[in-house]
Structure formats: C-alpha cells, structure tokens
Amino acid sequence: MTRCSPASAPDNLRRWWADAVGYQVYLRSFADSDNDGVGDLGGVIAKLDYLARLGVDFVWITPFYPTPGHDWGYDVADYCDVDPLFGDLATLDRLVAAAHDRDIRIVTDLVPNHTSSDHRWFQAALGNSGAAERERYRDYYIWRDPAPGGGPPNNWVGYFGGPAWTLDPDSGQYYLHLFLPSQPDLNWRNPAVAAEWDDILRFWLDRGVDGFRVDVAGGLVKDEHLRSNPQLQAIPPGASRWEQWDCFEHLYDVFQPESQDVFRRWRTICDRYGAFLHGETYHLDPRGMDDLLPPDGMHGGYWFAPMHIEWEPAAIRTTLRAPTGDLAERLLWAMSSHDMPRAPTRFALRSDAGSDQPAAPDGWGAARTLAFNVLAAFLPGTFVLYQGEELGLIDGEVAVADKLDPVGPDSDVGAGRDGCRTPMPWGDGPHNGFSDTEPWLRSAQRPYVHTAAAQDGAARSWLEAYRDLLAAQRDARHDLETAGATVTWTDGGEGPVISYRRGRLVVAANVGDTASEVPLGDGATLLFDSAIACRHPSAAPSDASAQHAPGGVDLLPPASAAVWRI
Questions:
Q1: CA distances from 437 to 43, 69, 390, 451 (A)
Q2: Which run of H or E residues covers position 213?
Q3: pLDDT on residue 468
Q4: How many CB atoms lie within 10 A of CB 172?
C-alpha cells in the first residue's frame, strides 16, 4: 500500500472507507505477544495474516496510550506515546508498516472528551506543578464553584452512574467528569485545548496511521452556561447507570452543536492525509445522527441502533431502513463492540439463553448475527466486525469474583462489560492460546471447537463463513461502486423477509421462524448464502436455499441471508 504525504494524498484515497470492511481489535484481549497476560501491539502484528485472510480493509485498535487503567485505556495519561504494557512507538511503527504491506490500514482510537486524572495537564491544573502551570492549565478542564446551597454546580449525572462532579478540596471547586472521577472532562471552549489536539492528530498521521475513531464524539463541548438538564423523574433507589441516565433529558451535557466546529477542524487535517475520521456517535434516532454527521464534519459515525434490537422483523427492518439519503453513506454498521453484549448472545433463542443458562455458542444467536451481517455488509457505508464475531462467539463467562469493569455493582457481572471483553480464543491449551500466563481478565475456558485454530479450514465453520462473506463483498464492490448509495427496498415493508436491491445486487434475509421464498426472476447468480456457508441450526436441510423453485424463486431457511447478482 502506498503511503501518502499530507500534500500528495490523492482524491481516490480520500474515500477509501466507502464499502470497506473494518475489524475492531480490543487490544487488551486480542493477542498477547510477550506472555504477560495482556494483549499488545506485538500480538496484533502476529495476527495480521489472520486478518488479511479474513478479508478486512482496516483495523481499529482501542487505546494503547499510557494509562493508569481505571477505565482500561480510556483514561489517557499521554496522547503521544505507547504504554509499555502494549509496546512502544517503534512497535507501533512496525505494526503500521506490516499492515500496509498486507493492504490493511490502521485506525487508532482518540479519547478527546476527557483525560486521565494522571495526565500532566490535570496535575498542573490541580497546582501540583507550580502556580504558573496551574494558571496555564486550569482552564483546560471545567471547574465551577459549588451551588449556592452547597453541593455540585448542576444536576448532571455521569454516564457510569452517580454525580458528574467531584469536589477538589484544595480549591473548593468541583470539576466535571461525564465518566469516572479519574476521567476529568476537557474544556473544549478553550482554544488552547483545540490547538493541543491539532498537534496530537498530526503526530499520529505523520507516523502513518490511516484514521481515527473518536470516542464520545457527541460529548465534547458542553453548554456554555452549564445549565441543569430537565429531570424527567426521580432517580429510583438502586437504579442502574442506564436508569439514572434516562431520568434526565440531556439537553446541555451532550450533543451540543459547537462540537461540530471541532470535527470540521479535524476534517481539514485528516483530508490532507486521506485519513478516515469517524466517531462514536451514540444516538439511536436517525435525525440525531443527521445532526452528528453533517456533510462537512466527520466522514462517518457508528450507527448503534443494531446493538439495541431484538430478533424481530419490524425492529430489524426499521433499524436498517431508517437512515436514508446521504446519511446512509456516512454510517458504520456494527453488531457488537467492546461496550455491548455480543450479538450472538443478544440474538440467542430464549431456550438457548434463559435466565439460568448461557447462550448456546453455536446456535441460533450466531446464525442470526451472520444473517444480519449479510444485510449490513452490502448497504452503503462501512461494515465493521468486532473481534471474535467471525467465530460466532457469545459473551465469555466471568465469575463475580473476577469482575473488573468499574461499571455496575461489583456483584453484578452482567451490569458491566467484561463478558464481551474476554480474551480472544486462538487455539488449544490453557487460556485458549491467548497467552501462556493468566489473562488480565479471567474467564471460563472456551471449547476448542470455538477457537480460531479449530475453525480455520473447517468446512462450514463460522470463520470460513465470514471469510466467504467478506470475499463476496469484495468481489461485488464494482457493483456497489456503480450503484452508489441508491438502495431500493423490495420487501414491501412487512413480512419475515427483508430484502433490497443495490444496483445489480439483491440481498435478502429471512428473519422469521419458518422457511420463506424470495422471488428473483430468471438469471440470478448466487454470490453468498449463509445457510450453506455455516453449520446452520435450522431443522430444514442446510442447503435448502441452494434449491431454485420454479419461476426463479429461492427458499431461505429462518435466520439466514443470501446475496445474488442479477
């Protein structure tokens, strides 16, 4: 892959992410190269051939910066270095070069809403570096006096629960943190903060990274007057973090329009490098996504609605069809992430995932996830897999005593995010080949059949099915490019079959409970069929959809999807 200097980035690289396939690496849990129990950059280098064979175009890597680890890397103490736990700058450079040799781009995670409380800026703001440094850095963060009657300056709550303000006893002022108290929010109304971040972006772009995923992209700028949010109801005793958050109408703490000024500024920088700027745009309403993704802002943003739906035709249809027009081209489609339960866990049948039993690791949940991913992979935008999704993995089992996530009560593993963050199962032996040492996050051993080694080359394994899917998507890119963003939905808006046309491609999924027919007409060529590609759990013959009924009709088993060229 040819690297481009800022002045020479050609136009044809500026939108390389259109119809591309990404892969999220949760670094701590992906691959451990030095056997200290923690995944690292060297581990990613060692698995690049695996990722190349899978067929991904870029890899998004979660934070590798120096960190005290209170939020597992999303509390950054230095934005222009690598934590020794993960390697060093030289390792990062080797990773970028090795990935480019395989035509894989590297996207890094930016955390601009907040720093770690260990960051030198915040330590200086506290006065720990002298009066002059305190004067310089105090306004890098958001400080306010107590309310007239005492207590926090307003009623904002943190995304992880509890008040969004912590008192600094030495100054008598509160500082703002939308997440943990050890993650103080930056003051993006201070031009000096924006200037610092210009330099941070250029630092990594000059090292060859190909883009950024912006954490908490909707939260950077806060209301100028820090007004209290309207409270919809009293916070009930014992409320979860989600319930606490939903007790308020979030008019002033997030989604302020001035954040777009930051992204326009960054867009100018990234465009000069042909770099992909996209964000964690956590909004479940397409109208809100329109506000977060104006045409001159970030190139794209994650559409989180697919991570919040049940396996039900109306919900799936609405989630897929709601984003329309130019917005669809700016979406990143993902079913799972390091913050949400894995899709095969969420989509498992009740009999597979009852209150007392874990989801079946090789059943309906994985088949439904693959079927949904077939629909998403050919829509306008960018398709992203979360590590292990290609293995059909459900959430890992973490004992209460081993819970590490600061989110939720210590006694409730399900309230946190540990289940979706357990180590990647690479092969046989202790810890599923992730490390020779006890991993940083302890979890139950997965059966060998669920590992990458067991599925590699195994007929109709989940891994081989996803390789086939991504190969079909890559082979169809000329059709996708020719069709542009135009999608014609052909399912009539109801029923168990969801289908659309994009140019010469027809994509259909059966989200019902029984086999359903898909009318195609004569001359359709099958490109991919999930029921054939994987070990489908349907009671119907697994190759049913390979049978053409009279009149150019294909039969899809439940929880399956297929793609044809006509």
A1: 14, 19, 25, 18
A2: strand 211-214
A3: 98
A4: 9
465: nearest Cα among 335, 387, 561: 561
For the chain, what is the total number of helices (H) and then of strands (E)? 17, 19
Q: How far is CA 269 from CA 35, 208, 278, in A?
A: 38, 14, 13
Query: Concatenated DSSP letters for 222-233?
Result: --TT-PPPPB-S
pLDDT exceeds cutoff 50 at 450: yes
d(CA 562, CA 334): 19
Q: How far, in Å, CA of 158 to CA of 179, rounded?
A: 5
Q: Give me the DSSP letters along 271-294.
A: HHHT-EEEE----SSHHHHHHHS-
Spatial distance between the Cα atoms of 96 and 82, rounded to a whole number of angstroms: 14
Residue 214 dihedral angles phi and psi, to the nearest 5°:
-95, 115
Asked whether 160 and 48 are in contact (CB, 8 A), the reply is no
What percentage of the chain reaches a pLDDT higher than 90? 88
What is the per-residue pLDDT for 350?
60
How many angstroms separate the CA atoms of 29 and 443, rounded?
Answer: 11
Return the ∠ at Cα 284 (arms to 279 and 285), rounded to 5°.
Answer: 105
> 364-377 and 313-321 helices cross at what angle (nearest 10)?
30
Catalytic positions: 215, 280
Q: Is 138 helix (H, G, I), strand (E, B) or coil?
A: helix
Residue 549 binned pLDDT confidence (cut-offs 50, 70, 90)? low
509 and 499 Cβ atoms separated by less than 8 Å: yes
Question: What are the pLDDT digits (tens) for 356-381?
Answer: 455 454 589 999 999 999 999 999 99
* 291-298 contacts, C-beta under 8 A, 24 or more apart: 291/255, 291/257, 292/217, 292/218, 292/255, 293/327, 293/330, 294/260, 295/326, 296/264, 296/267, 297/260, 297/263, 297/264, 297/267, 298/214, 298/217, 298/263, 298/266, 298/267, 298/330
The confidence score (pLDDT) of residue 5 equals 46
Spatial CB neighbours of 421, under 8 Å, sequence gap ≥ 6? 26, 28, 29, 72, 338, 396, 405, 441
Please say if the pLDDT value at position 487 is more than 60.
Answer: yes
What would the pLDDT profile of 508-524 be if each residue is shown by its tens digit? 999 999 999 999 988 89
What integer pLDDT is reported at residue 363 of this predicted model? Answer: 86
By the 8 A CB rule, do 330 and 299 touch? Answer: yes
Work out the pLDDT band at 70, boundaries 50, 70, 90.
Answer: very high
| CA distance linking residue 417 with residue 420, whole number of Å | 6
Whether residue 34 has pLDDT greater than 80: yes
In 121-157, which positions are buried (b, 16+ CB within 10 angstroms) versus exposed (e)? Answer: bbbbbbbeeeeebbeebbebbbbeeeeeeeebbbbbb
SS3 305: helix
Rg (CA), the chain: 24
